[in-house]
Amino acid sequence: MLDDSDVRRVLAVMAHPDDVDFGAAGTIAGWTSRGIEVTYLIVTDGDAGGFDDSVGREEMAALRRDEQRAAAACVGVDDVRFLGYPDGRVEPTLDLRRAIARVIRQVRPDRVLMPSPERNYERIHPSHPDHRAVGAAALDAVYPDARNPYAFPELLADEGLEPWTVREAWLSGGPVVNHYVDITDDFDRKLAALKSHVSQTAHLGDALADTLRQWLSANAAAAGLPAGRLAESFQVVATV
């Protein structure tokens, strides 16, 4: 696994606004604190989310884009991009792979964070169909699309985007975990990021922090960390 000192840029590819914050905001806060540049690529605008019937879907999409930008700022991220796919209807198509490969070639990250393309039967919530579709497309964009000059040749010929080899993929929310990150010192920033998603989390009140602590404490225990520590979990995949 790459040491963070060898990582200059990270791209996080996620399905909906708030996905990156539930799964990895504490880890990302640590990365940016160490000088790593992080870019978010959010595939949908989350227009099928929320709990208020009085909010129209276009209004919800705009609101959720703003919430994601505010959440990103809490953890030191200022480059947030959206692809605008319809929430709830994402499939791992060639068009989506091309769109992600394009951003990989633009950002040129050492590491790409994405949802796991595998269903997690132990904890079903991370296995939303959009998550799995985005994970599958992002992993295919990492290998082989972004590095292969003959995959989507128009990216080079028409847009001047040279191939780029990502060295590592981090999968979030899947059934396999092989790496934990202690985020105890960055928990407050993770919580602030999630509270920025007012349309999605305001109804939880104080239960949000309590629930997060339960999840993250269980991860820390599985990692063998001392009592009182909090951790996020990932499957790290070498891609070179």
UniProtKB/TrEMBL annotation:
GO terms for molecular function: hydrolase activity, acting on carbon-nitrogen (but not peptide) bonds, in linear amides. InterPro entries: GlcNAc_PI_deacetylase-related (IPR003737), LmbE-like_dom_sf (IPR024078). GO terms for biological process: glycoside metabolic process. Pfam families: PIG-L. The keyword Phosphoprotein does not apply. Keywords: Zinc. This is GlcNAc-PI de-N-acetylase. It comes from Actinomadura rubrobrunea.
